[in-house]
Amino acid sequence: MIIFFSFLSIWFDWFNNFNCFLLFVIVFFVFFVFFFLFFFNFFFNLNLGFGLLEFWMCFIPIFFLISQIIPSIFLLFFFNFSNTSSDLTIKVVGHQWYWSYEIGDNLGFFFDSFMLSDEFFVLGDYRLLEVDNRLILPVNFFVRFVLTSFDVIHSWTLPMFFLKMDVMSGLLNIMDFFFESVGVFYGQCSEICGANHSFMPVVIELTLMNFFKSFFIF
Predict the structure, then answer these.
(1) If both were cysteines, with which of 28, 163, 196, 207 could 211 make a disulfide (CB 3.0 to 4.6 Å apart)?
(2) What dihedral do alpha carbons 128, 130, 135, 137 form, nearest 10°?
(3) What is the CATH number of domain 88-217?
(4) CB contact at 8 A, 135 and 204
(5) Among 88, 93, 176, 173, CA closest to 136
(6) In the chain, how long is the greatest CA-to-CA distance?
(7) 29, 60 Cβ separation under 8 angstroms
C-alpha cells in the first residue's frame, strides 16, 4: 500500500478509486440494459415506450460524464493553475541512464545523480533505488521543475506524490508542486529508455529551509 504525502496526491488517489468505482457501475449498467433488452423487450415496448427509454439512455451517460468532469476540473486547476510563481526552480535532464539536476535560476549549481553501486551500500539503503547524489529540496515552498532529455524519452516519476512527467529531447516540460512533508522519497524512470532503463532511480530529500541552506550558498 502506498502512503501519499501531499494534499494533491491524496485527491489524485481518491479520483483514481472513484474512476474505478464508476467503471464498475458503467459495466454493470450496460450488462443490465442488454439483459433486459434481450429478455424483456416486450416490457419496454408496452410499458416504458421508446421515448422514455431514449431519455434514460441519454441522461445516465451524461450523469456519468458530469461526475468525471467536476473532479477533473478541480484537480487540473489546483495542479496547474493554483500557482503562478515559484520559489525555487529545478532543471531536470534525463540521460542514458542517469539524471542531472540544476538548482535555482541563477545559482549555476548542478550535479549528476547515478544509481548507487552495491559496494557503497550502507545499512538501510534500498537496492536499485538509492543514488549517490540526492535532490535536496525545502518543504512548504513552491518548486517549479523544468524537465527535458539529452537523448531518448525518459519519465521522471515520484509515485508517493503522484508526480510523473515525460521528458523529451528538444522539449521543455514544466511542472509546479508544493511539497508538504519532510522525508526521503523514491521513484524511477517510468519510460522504457534502453538497456539500463531499470537503473536510473529518482531520489528527493525534503528538509526544512534551515537545513536546505546549509547545502547551498545563496
Answers:
(1) 207
(2) 120
(3) 2.60.40.420
(4) yes
(5) 88
(6) 81
(7) yes
d(CA 68, CA 76): 12
Domain ranges of the chain: 7-40+50-82, 88-217
What would the grid cell of residue 164 be? 510523473
Reported as a pLDDT band with limits 50, 70 and 90, residue 1 is: very low
24-30 contacts, C-beta under 8 A, 24 or more apart: 25/64, 26/64, 29/60
Q: Tell me 48's DSSP state.
A: I
Strand partners for 163? 158
Rounded distance between C-alpha atoms, residue 96 and residue 153, angstroms = 10
How far apart (Å, rounded) are the C-alpha atoms in residues 154 and 113?
A: 15
The string of pLDDT tens digits covering residues 3-49 is 555 666 677 778 888 888 888 888 888 887 777 777 666 555 555 55
Q: Is the pTM of this model over 0.85?
A: no
Contact 91, 104 (CB under 8 A): no
Q: What span, in angstroms and rounded, lies between the C-alpha atoms of 151 and 63?
A: 45
The strand ranges marked E within 17-153 are 88-95, 98-103, 109-113, 135-138, 142-149
* Grid cell digits, residue 14: 481518491
